[in-house]
Amino acid sequence: MANDPQMLLAVRDLKKSYGTVHAVDGVSFAVRVGTVFTLLGPNGAGKTTTLEILEGIRDADEGEIEMFGARVRRVTAGMKGRMGVLLQEGGFEPYLRVREVLALFASFFDRPRPVAEVLAEIALEDKAGSLVRHLSGGQKQRLALGAALINDPDLVFLDEPTTGLDPQARHNIWAIVERLKGEGKTIVLTTHYMEEAEALSDEVCIMDHGRVIAHGSPRDLTSSLGQETLIEFDAFDLSPEALASLPGEAHGDGTTVTLTTPDLVAALEGLLSWSRERGIPLRNMVVRQPNLEDVFLSLTGRRLRA
After folding, report:
1. Membrane-crossing residues (predicted)?
2. What is the spatial distance between Cα 102 and Cα 120, in angstroms, rounded to a whole number?
């Protein structure tokens, strides 16, 4: 991928250990210009450590990074000047005003964007004079995103940008990410929300235990499960024997049962008979097509949880 103008970022065999724990264990992937690339996985999968290496916060033990056309072992100061970083916790001084926070971050760069321009982009113009402590959770996240964009970066890292936000605030962040992509920015995102990954991503890299276990577009990953249909219903503490007797391949997590079938009609008929014979109600039953969480479940045998 060297000198490939379509690849802004690539890593090869990246490794980082803490004692006997292999936080990042041979990770390789490439990110194309003007796309949203998402690292997906549970806590402890190695997503944040991978991002911290690429952001220059930590050094890798082994591996190679290619960024902005240069191959390096560690991220340089010049590379940092071309990237924007939104961390999980902004940690802004609560008694600074919004415009003061952005002005402070602007002072770190030779050619920052005008504060007023960034305020408009993150829709905080009416909060410019407000103290950080008076902002809502969603407004604080938009401010953190504004701080990450003040230097007009080519590459933007967003580490779980919508965790803990209400649906409206989450969609506000999504809209900003879509605008950035439309402007040709390259975005590396981590998230615990499958619907977020499906809505925003051009490519998804699923990690678990420090390794890449799947990589591709959301459509390609879900297509890998074939044309099967999923039937879900609530069933608490279903016994292994009852689960095994279901008409099809079934997984249960103690609260929800997921039945996978290539023949929906036959599966529904069998499921209704199973329910009557055992006296187990089919509460909140849903019929749907596979999604990214199903891909994760098929690969790891467990659901993604924050």
Report:
1. none
2. 12
- Read off the pTM: 0.82
DSSP letters for 68-118? TTEEESS--HHHHTTEEEE-S-----TTSBHHHHHHHHHTTSSSPPPHHHH
The list of the chain residues with pLDDT below 70 reads 1-5, 88-90, 301-306
- Within 10 angstroms of residue 148's Cβ, the number of other Cβ atoms is 22
CA gap 118, 261 in Å, rounded: 49
What's the rounded Cα separation, in Å, for the pair 255 and 287? Answer: 17
What is the rounded CA–CA span in Å between residue 101 and residue 103? 5
C-alpha torsion angle, residues 284, 160, 35, 31 (rounded to 10): -110
pLDDT at 306: 47
Residue 36's H or E segment, with its range, is strand 36-40
The CATH fold assigned to 227-289 is Alpha-Beta Plaits (3.30.70)
| pLDDT of the residue at 73 | 87
Pairing of strands 229-234, 283-288: antiparallel
Per-residue confidence (pLDDT) for residue 235, from 0 to 100: 87
Does residue 246 contact residue 192 with C-beta atoms inside 8 Å? no
Amino acid at 68: F
Give the separation between CA 152 and CA 211, rounded to whole angstroms. Answer: 32
CATH fold, domain 7-217, is Rossmann fold (3.40.50)
Where along the chain do the CATH 3.30.70 domains lie? 227-289
Q: Which residue has the tokens 């939104």?
A: 86
> In the prediction, which pLDDT does 89 show?
65
Other Cβ atoms closer than 10 A to 174:
16
Residue pointed to by tokens 């045998």: 301
Residue 301, pLDDT score: 65
CATH 3.40.50.300 domain position(s) in the chain: 7-217
User: How many Å apart are CA 280 and CA 139, to the nearest integer?
Assistant: 46
